[in-house]
Amino acid sequence: MPPKPEITDEMRETAEAEIREKQKPVDYDTKEYPIEILIQKYMDGRDDDTNELFIPDYQREIAWDEERQSKFIESVLLGLPIPYIFVADVRDEENDEARLEIIDGTQRIRTLASFLNNELTLSKLDKLQRLKGFTFADFPLARQRRFKRTTLRMIQLTENADEEVRRDLFERINTGSVELNEMEKRRGILRGPFLDLIEELSKNQKFRNLCSFSEAAIRSRDPQEFVLRFFAFLNNYEKFIREVNL
Known about the structure:
Helices cover 46% and strands 13% of the residues. The chain is an alpha/beta fold. Strands 1-5-3-4-2 form a 5-stranded mixed β-sheet. Helix 3 (66-78) crosses helix 4 and helix 8 (193-202) packs across helix 11 (222-234). It has 11 helices and 5 strands. It folds into 2 domains: 28-175, no CATH class; 182-239, no CATH class.
């Protein structure tokens, strides 16, 4: 790693000036809407592109498969916290109407719309496995009403946020995180004595020396993954017929 360059007072002043120059004040409000109202804002007028809550041209088409959509609906049913939906208050100059442009949350809005319109059949659920094969219409009326009354939180940029700000926010939200690998997911979801043992064994110095893990591999929890595979193959390696992606 090259030596860290010395930061001078002049460099600090220049950096601070650049921050002030590039920084844009972004006014926003925090809103909370029932799912029924949100989807109504999205669906009413969608066919002729006059819906109040709309997806802009620069947004991608729906990418979630049925399994991921189902797990999102499951999260809502379980009452788990749902990330904020980001929207911007924009003016439709052609019709002189105030509309809400979705900056982040299109997949969630589309999934909710599909579910309420009975276009999504729940599958591969983690907790609510008895709901496999259900559509929204299959739920009792009381559960349908509770689902529709569930509220989602929204960050709404005011009309002062221009298109550059909206696109920049979209890019930063969608590139600002790294998807967890399988071992990181296990560590976050399946805590217990066995994973604690894997963690302990993965730090064995002889094991580390033998496998010669790079720093990047260690950060990605490859040692833990290797230990887990050892236990997976220990008593069943003769029956294992699939390829292993190392």
